Amino acid sequence: MEFSEYVAARRSRLVRSAVLMGCPEADAEDLVQTALAKALRSWDRVTRAQSVDAYVHRILVNTLHDARSRRWRGEIPSLVVPDTAAPTPDLAEGLAVRAALLELVPEQREVLVLRFWADLSERDTAAATGVAVGTVKSRTSRALRTLAERLAADSSPALEAGDHHAH
Amino acid sequence: MPTDELVFTPDDARRLLQRAAETIEVPPVSPVSPAPAPPRGRLPRFVPILAAAAAVAMIATGGLVWRALTTETPPPAETRLGEATMPSVFGYSRDDAVQLLEGLGLEVTVREQSGCGEPGRAIGTVPGIGLAADERVTLKVSGPVAANVDCAADAELPLSWALIDFATGRGDASEVPFADTLEVVGADEPVDLTATQAADPESWGPDSPLGLLAAATRQTRLGETGEEEAPRMTNSIGFPGESRCLPVSLPVLDETREPVSILVGYDDGPCLATLDLYFSGPPVGVLPGSQIDTIVGSGTELADDPSDRYLPGGDGPGVVRVPAVSGLRLSEARSNLTAAGFAVHVERLATCADPRGVIDQSPRAGTERNPGSTVTIVTEVPRATDRC
């Protein structure tokens, strides 16, 4: 795959990945540009990897960590509600989910985004985050539980929709 | 006792994250200035990265096909031989690389490749590192910037390469503007060098930032594709915060002085060495007259023998491969290392951000070591609020 084709197809999704993983929305595009620029410099290597998406997400996660430690210095990303007069129910649900994600620790947030938004396998998620597959499993389990608790605490529409399970 | 525990299934999570993603607007075009970004105050100003990012932005706008960095596919890894293999030319100038390869009895063809790197600096070889050295080899060097690609004027600071040349003994200090007194901060106690001492690599000592830089340039790793990879050099300008290369205690410096950083490492992996250069005048090597008065170096512990690196498999008798523990919580990392038979030394690094657990380890994951040897791990801990 040509680099330009990949960018055209995946850039928007990567920006959303960055925001969902906790990058301030205003910085997400620059962060993704930086990650893509890194990928470009190694594009021949990237395309020989088993999964281009997994490789680029690994670079994105590293770039996010690097930016966080070098610049944000403790800044807590905040959720800015889009400036719309009356959010649709779907938008409200999505915003509630984003707010709940921000309450998770970064490790849990990242594993949820990589697994269920970026659609990476457990193995690719482990590679992207630099941990063992078993750790991905346990983090995912904890993250799903915590997310459900946060949304329940917020009485979000997501929960009211009934797509959760009681055990 | 509560019995009603809420749990989302993976399908629930996919649906919810899809909903969350739909609230994020992404404009179709994302222009990036080719010049270092002025501060919104928190973005890293990676100079070469921004240069390449400019290319990315142009692609995003459509119309431009970027081929400047397209490289040939190296020969398959099966051609790897035990002897007469290609060396890394990372950090070499064109002339030095030609001399290195010709010294191995090889006939060298030089091919320029457009990009944003310093013109005339070696990019790589065909065949690649570690592969059988044919009688004739191709040396790829940076050429002029490709048409329609807007690199920042100082995408790679020439000073960085001059310092690498000096550190590796392939150049002298004449291109490196040391101040009359140079404070050197590294793994050892800070020392002051006179300009004369600074110009003599022997005065710096093997564990100095200069030694770290030289060692980092010699490293390679076995990449995912089974090919050896050299690290890359990047520059950043701005307050470094906690360096990616650990462990090192950053000195208390005048926070109004922002350094130029030279980073040698892998985009998707560990940093090998970071040198933060502080200037006596306006920052940076892009302005004449500024002199380096302080160098802060940090680096990952590197093997003296560059062949001591990631190993693809085959655990030798009596040695154990160091497990990967970066990203784990301290307790998990300690448990995994102990289970593998290693002693654990923990270093803690205070951070104002959310602690990420273990952020570095030495020796690196995959390195073979004797059971009972010590693995040092660096873990982040919260910094006192009043110091953030």
Determine the mean pLDDT of chain A. 79
Helix content range of chain B? 10-25%
Radius of gyration of chain B: 23 Å
| N-to-C CA distance of chain A | 45 Å
Question: Could you list the spans of chain B in which at least 5 consecutive residues all have pLDDT below 50?
Answer: 30-83, 302-317
The CA-CA distance between the termini of chain B, in Å, is 41 Å
The dominant shape of chain A is: globular
> How are the strands of the largest sheet of chain B arranged?
6-5-12-11-10-9
Order of helices and strands of chain A: HHHHHHHHHE
Write down the Rg of chain A.
16 Å
Rounded mean pLDDT score of chain B: 70
**Helical content band of chain A:** over 70%
Task: Walk me through the structure.
Residues 71-77 and 156-167 of chain A have low confidence and may be disordered. Chain A contains nine helices and one strand. The N and C termini of chain A lie far apart (45 Å). In chain A, 72% of the residues lie in helices and 1% in strands. The longest helix of chain A is centred in the middle third of the chain and has 21 residues, at 52-72. Chain A has helices spanning 3-20, 25-41, 43-48, 52-72, 89-103, 106-116, 122-129, 133-153, 157-160; one strand spanning 165-166. Chain A is mainly alpha-helical. In chain B, helix 4 (158-167) crosses helix 6 (209-218). The longest helix of chain B is centred in the first third of the chain and has 14 residues, at 47-60. Chain B is globular. The model of chain B is unreliable at 30-83 and 302-317 (pLDDT under 50). The chains are: A mainly alpha (167), B alpha+beta (388). The interface between A and B is large, with 84 and 83 residues. Strand 1 of chain A pairs antiparallel with strand 1 of chain B.
Give a short overview.
Chain A is mainly alpha-helical.
List keywords for this structure.
heterodimer, A: about 170 residues, mainly alpha, about 70% helix, globular, B: about 400 residues, alpha+beta, six-stranded mixed beta sheet
